[in-house]
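A further point concerns the way the authors explain their paired sequence and structure data. For illustration, here is how one protein appears when written out as sequence plus structure tokens:
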Amino acid sequence: MSVSDETMMFKKVEDTPSAREVLRDVYHALQEKGYNPIEQIVGYLISGEPTYITSYNNARSMIRRLERDELLEELVAEYVKAKGL
């Protein structure tokens, strides 16, 4: 059997970070640049304006890869879990 006759498995490599990872990395980038991360992330989530997020360490491009509702879902889920609701 030649190589071209064989069936090969393709595994998709997930290169998109999770909402949790994005929020963590963006939070740290904002903190390192001296911003209040909570205020900046809330401003972004409410307005959709990416300039609330620093471009330092690719934070702005990372946060724009995800929909804002995905980020909100992660935040609400973690809040509910932390409060034991």
